[in-house]
Specification:
Number of strands: 4
Structural class: mainly alpha
Strand order of the largest sheet: 1-4
Number of helices: 14
Distance between the termini: 13 Å
Strand content: under 5%
Helix content: over 70%
Order of helices and strands: HHHHHHHHHHHHHEEEEH
């Protein structure tokens, strides 16, 4: 069965429909189902009274259980599909919920419009829905920077990575990846509750995103107005980011747009002194979000074209 072709179908369906609000209201979303399972396991298995070593073991067991269960369900469903073009289309439709192509565009565009109109309150509210930092403390440059960083990072782990693993392994690959990514977002952060319990989830996510993050960065760099500058910025600055993967698409986006990203920000009232990406460049403005969205669209078209080539090969 053509997994690359199925992922192309998933991209097309999501670009046309997104995940409709009436459908979400009726049944939720497969990622929220994964989130409920992870939340229940976190509540029952992550016991504060246990030693850090025991919590690390428990967290690793939970991570492996969720990933194997998710990928296993995908494999069972995939084996029921006929190995013909109709099966490829069915596989693509089943993979569709795990691609956030349209949702990412819409959420970032919702920041650009009020920011361009000078409505900082509305822009802060919109950006607060897609980033973890405190939006109340952000000025125009901070809002634009947060939106563009979210666009770059989520293009990697919300679209390129699931499609990459789906193109390799089909439904088990894309569902298994979304399980990994959801685990990381829920328990993979360094909080007192999850530093030990979530270490395995965070490590697995780093491995799963290694290739997709660099592929996303390369797409942004090569499709920008000055590919050599963007590529140089990515290679130079990506390693300065706190994440081993997120720095690649973010640094490429910074170089492609000629702006600086990352830098100090406030999380839960505390200043995180992050290094700058493309430090010598100017601060972004609302128009740079729109330029970033245009670059994102070009990158997704190029990704779709690559999937089509692999599907026809």
């Amino acid at each position: 069965m053509g997994f690359a072709g199925a992922m192309l179908v998933a991209m097309a369906v999501d670009a046309l429909m997104g995940w409709p609000a009436p459908l979400f209201a009726r049944i939720g979303h497969p990622v929220t189902w994964l989130g409920r399972l992870i939340g229940l396991l976190d509540e029952s298995c992550n016991r504060p009274a246990d030693t850090p070593a025991m919590r690390r073991i428990a967290g690793a067991a939970v991570a492996l259980f969720v990933i194997v269960a998710a990928a296993g369900l995908g494999w069972i469903i995939q084996t029921m599909l006929v190995p013909e073009w109709s099966g490829m289309i069915a596989l693509g439709i089943l993979a569709w919920p795990f691609v956030a192509l349209r949702s990412l565009y819409d959420h970032v565009a919702a920041v650009a419009e009020p920011l361009r109109m000078g409505d900082l309150a509305a822009a802060r509210a919109a950006v607060g829905r897609i980033v973890g930092r405190d939006p109340a403390m952000l000025d125009e440059a901070g809002i634009a920077r947060a939106a563009i960083e979210s666009l770059a990072e989520n293009a990697s782990d919300g679209i390129v990575a699931p499609l990459f693993w789906g193109a390799l392994f089909g439904l088990p690959g894309i569902i298994g990846y979304k399980a990994i990514n959801t685990l990381d977002s829920m328990i993979g952060h360094r909080s007192p509750r999850h530093e030990a319990f979530g270490w395995a989830a965070a490590g697995i996510d780093d491995v799963a995103n290694f290739v997709p993050a660099r592929l996303t960065g390369a797409l942004f760099a090569l499709l920008g107005s000055n590919p050599s500058v963007a590529m140089a910025c990515m290679v130079r600055d990506a390693r300065h980011h706190r994440s081993p993967n997120a720095g690649w698409p973010e640094a490429a986006m910074a170089g492609a747009l000629g702006i600086r990203l990352s830098g100090p920000r406030i999380y839960q009232g505390r200043i995180a002194d992050e290094p700058w990406l493309n430090a010598a460049a100017r601060d972004p403005v609302a128009g740079d979000i729109e330029q970033g969205l245009k670059l994102y669209v070009r990158a997704m078209i190029a990704l779709a074209a690559a999937l089509a080539v692999f599907a026809l090969a």
